[in-house]
């Protein structure tokens, strides 16, 4: 998924259901200079999404532990 975020940042957003972010990323990506910020944005968003999933999983485990 990281490779998709670097090569096709807009597709990374679309695959995760963030359509508006994907459209904005595609507009940014249309310029050669915008490709780098778009790729960084997509990778950072992907990493943030993974961290949120881990936090939710840890919270569920803590609730079940009590």
Radius of gyration, taken over Cα atoms and rounded to an integer in Å: 15 Å
- How far the N terminus sits from the C terminus, by CA atoms, comes to 35 Å
Task: State the major sheet.
Answer: none
Alpha-beta classification:
mainly alpha
Question: Mean of residue pLDDT?
Answer: 89
Low-pLDDT residue spans: none
Provide the domain count.
2
Order of helices and strands: HHHH
Proportion in β-strands: under 5%
Gross morphology: elongated
Total of helices: 4
The total beta strand count reads 0
Helical percentage: over 70%
Walkthrough of the structure:
This protein is mainly alpha-helical and 66 residues long. It folds into two domains: 1-31, no CATH class; 33-65. It has four helices and no strands. α2 runs antiparallel to α3, α2 runs parallel beside α4 (32-65) and α3 packs antiparallel against α4 (32-65). The radius of gyration is 15 Å and the shape is elongated. The termini are far apart. The model has no long low-confidence stretch (mean pLDDT 89). The chain crosses the membrane at residues 27-47. Keywords: Membrane, Transmembrane, Transmembrane helix. Its main location: membrane. It is found in: Membrane. Belongs to the UPF0057 (PMP3) family.
């Amino acid at each position: 998924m990281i490779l998709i975020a670097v090569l096709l940042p807009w597709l990374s957003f679309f695959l995760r259901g963030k359509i508006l972010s994907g459209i904005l990323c595609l507009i940014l990506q249309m310029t050669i200079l915008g490709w780098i910020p778009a790729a960084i944005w997509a990778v950072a968003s992907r990493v943030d999404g993974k961290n949120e999933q881990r936090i939710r999983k840890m919270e569920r485990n803590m609730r079940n532990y009590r």
